[in-house]
Prior knowledge:
- It is a single chain.
- The chain has helices at 17-25, 53-58, 75-91, 103-111, 121-134, 136-146, 148-152, 159-172, 201-218, 220-229, 245-252, 258-281, 296-308; strands at 6-10, 30-34, 61-62, 95-99, 191-197, 287-290.
- The longest helix has 24 residues, at 258-281.
- Helix content is 51%, strand content 9%.
- By secondary structure, it is of the alpha/beta class.
Amino acid sequence: MSKAHLLCLMGPTTSGKSAAAMALAEQMPIEIVSVDSALVYRGMDIGTAKPTIDEQARVPHHLIDLIDASESYSAARFVADADVAIAAIRARGHIPLLTGGTMLYFKALRDGLDDMPSSDPAIRAEIDREAAAEGWDAMHHKLSEVDPTTAARLAPLDAQRISRALEVWRSSGRTLSSFQLGRDPANSRPLVTLSLEPSDRSALHARISTRFDAMLAAGLMEEVAALKSRGDLDERMSSMRCVGYRQAWEYLEGRCDRATMREHAIAATRQLAKRQITWLRSMPERIVIDCLAPDAIDRFVALAAARRR
């Protein structure tokens, strides 16, 4: 693997990326760069499956606990932060391993950023009011009328991305998809991409259910209740839109019972995994490892080591 190439470990949620990264650290001098839009938030540990204090002590992790839950984070900031971390890791003679499930961040790192308009709080608030009155299905339909390309790749309840696409349209008069045209592939940053993916979607769904139940047992509801009790957060913020947190917030507001909350959170996580797999399948250059295979981690370590040479 050339020093110009970046070693990346991708995969949908619950595919075993964290365990694989920790195993690789026993064989190679890596430092982990998180590619996860939820791990940047301080105080959001259980519901994001954040690496434990022990894991962070054993292997250096970067781009974790960067901001407060009241703040926003963007792909542009991710690329800037990742570039700083990658340069520092290489200066120490170590190997950066970029791993996570936020596919947009991987894409931004590889292809660069589009010159899109910045966020407009007034327009976003207007969209949130419309969504509260009409529902996100209706907002998705509105998006399909002005930007069918973007709407086709978004789930009808993907509130955060539907909101952003409508915001771009209303603030600039241009579709989100139009900002993503015309980039020169020759300018892309080279990645070596290893991807943990399930050969059986139902087995991944079972993992998702098991992990969410483990999060509940570990205190997820108490974590969300503590965040809610601060008084400066609301469910429209990016942090509280994270899968699991949004559903827990609804339960704490009394809008559903605990069983329904669990059902909705698991369904939302499955939808997230489906979107992640769709992203991955659009990357034919990736090297796929069956995350359900008994030797999945060993195969990942062997492939990563082979590409170091």
